[in-house]
Input
Amino acid sequence: MTRVEALGYLGFRVKSLEDWEVFATEILGMTATRAAIDGEEAVVLRMDERAHRITARVGDDELDYIGWQVSGPDALDEVAAALTAAGVAYNDDAGLAEMRGVRRLLRCTDPAGYTLEFHYGATMLQEPFVSPTGARFVTTAPDGADTGLGHVVVVCDNVEETTEFYRRVLGFKVSDHIIPVPGMLLTFLHTNPRHHSLAVAPVYKDGPTGINHFMVEVDDLDVVGRALDRVHQRKIRQLASLGRHTNDKMLSFYVQSPSGFGIEYGTDGLLIDDETWSVVTYDASAYWGHTFDPA
Ligand SMILES: [Fe+2]
Output
């Protein structure tokens, strides 16, 4: 079975590179560099040894692409075969691979319309990652398993079809579900020990599709607390108060990114052991906290 390994990177189109640069470094604790990508100015964000985890270029404040990492050339061949077997067209784009600093890259669109980039051989930099806020981001499990940059939650108007694509074609496993409000079923999917690398949400109250939020995890509650202090000090809009999620046990808060969508900043996320895991459905997203849009 084809198996995507981890959420390798994300790309966004943003209205203000400057706002993202300040937010990512001073609130989230990532490092930022300016680069020219395909002739366009970009802000490139690091959170560990990898050369880029998040890349922002100028545009309309939206998710540009999701980079799904696989373990190597054989795994990427398997993804290509699985996409072909499922009738999904893809580009094997050497120029794009060069731009992303990976050895090979296949690009396709998922059933909900999101652009996916399957890749292996990401560039690791000799220059150590040193967070300006002292954050240490959790991108591996204690046993060394790669757990990726975090997770991404996307809103889809064809949730079942999209979920089945990730499950049957790409080898994701359902972690669990949450019904946060009656009639709304969220589906969480994992592809490594991280509880979820992807969650699929239906359109809510005629709202938009697009990214709902992405999550990054740090290894220290005090780093989360200090980030929250900075959010308050700078009067940045918080989308949910500090709280503990029911399903992945993440202790986190949600803040509005400069592009409007959410960023979850948390610690203490659950790791899954597929040998013993069983899918359940929670009737709430948090044990406590996560009050929406706190004043
Ligand atoms: Fe989340």
Notes: The chain has one domain: 6-289. The domain at 6-289 is CATH 3.10.180.10 (2,3-Dihydroxybiphenyl 1,2-Dioxygenase; domain 1).
